[in-house]
Amino acid sequence: MSEDERTFVMVKPDGVQRGLIGEIVSRFEERGLKLVGGKFMQIDDDLAHEHYGEHEDKPFFDDLVEFITSGPVFAMVWEGADATRQVRSMVGETDPAESAPGTIRGDFGLDLGRNVIHASDHEDEGANEREIDLFFDEEELLDYERIDAAWLYE
Ligand code: GDP
Ligand code: MG
User: Fold this and answer.
1) What is the pLDDT of residues 7-31, one digit of tens each?
2) What pLDDT, on the 0 to 100 scale, is given for residue 42?
3) Phi and psi dihedrals of 103, rounded to 5?
4) What's an example Gene Ontology biological process for this entry (predicted)?
5) How confident is the model at residue 149, as a pLDDT?
6) Does residue 1 have a pLDDT over 70?
7) Is residue 51 annotated as a catalytic residue, yes or no?
8) Measured distance CA(56)–CA(21) in Å, rounded
9) Contact 106, 96 (CB under 8 A)
10) Where are the domains of the chain?
């Protein structure tokens, strides 16, 4: 399994406002994933429409766009073995109410429309690469070794 799979993760405006950036970053760092990109930014209308394009016809789409553009987000790229699937399992279910304790949404959320974090869907082939390309330029993704790399993989 490739140890350099990359996935896109974003602390949503509610997570930023609630002071959860550090806690969320810590979880991925402690798991052994490698941070290769990070950007504190505000999403504009065009980017929101592109990022959530698959949901354009859903009844919650306008509220979702309004919410995701309502304040700063912290966008990140994390790298590691099976990163997309591993991160999703740490994030929990889409609805925090259905998310197990121990997951990010299960520990920090209660409401479907305020679920703290976005992560690329491992069941949507190529979503990780598409979302990384949408939010980051290639030169914003850094190539380096974690000092504990030899202790993270056999
Ligand atoms: P995710 O990949 O787990 O984030 O879930 P989806 O891709 O299905 O949906 C994208 C985002 O839209 C979710 O994270 C929620 O913030 C929001 N969302 C999804 N379904 C609903 C819904 O039924 N109602 C509302 N209000 N928001 C929803
Ligand atoms: Mg999704």
Assistant:
1) 999 999 999 999 999 999 999 999 9
2) 98
3) -90, 160
4) UTP biosynthetic process
5) 94
6) no
7) no
8) 28
9) yes
10) 5-147
Cα–chain center distance at 16: 13
Q: Which pLDDT band holds residue 41 (cuts at 50, 70, 90)?
A: very high
Contacts of 42 (CB under 8 A, 6+ apart): 69, 71, 72, 73
Q: Which atom of ligand 1 is nearest to the CA of 94?
A: 3
Q: What is the dihedral of CA 39, 92, 127, 142, to 10 degrees?
A: 30
5-147: CATH number: 3.30.70.141
Is residue 115 within 6 Å of ligand 1 at its C-beta? Answer: yes
CA distance 50 to 58: 14
Q: Please tell me the predicted confidence (pLDDT) of residue 109.
A: 97
pTM for the structure as a whole: 0.97
Distance CA 129, CA 106 (A): 26
Residue 48 one-letter amino acid: A
With left for phi above 0 and alpha for psi between -120 and 50, is residue 19 left, alpha or beta? Answer: left
The helix (run of H) or strand (run of E) holding residue 21 is: helix 21-31
Q: Which of 8, 9, 60 for a ligand 1 pocket mutation test, highest count of atoms within 8 Å of Cβ? A: 60
Query: Residues 6 or more apart from 35 whose CB is under 8 A from it?
Result: 25, 28, 29, 76, 77, 78, 79
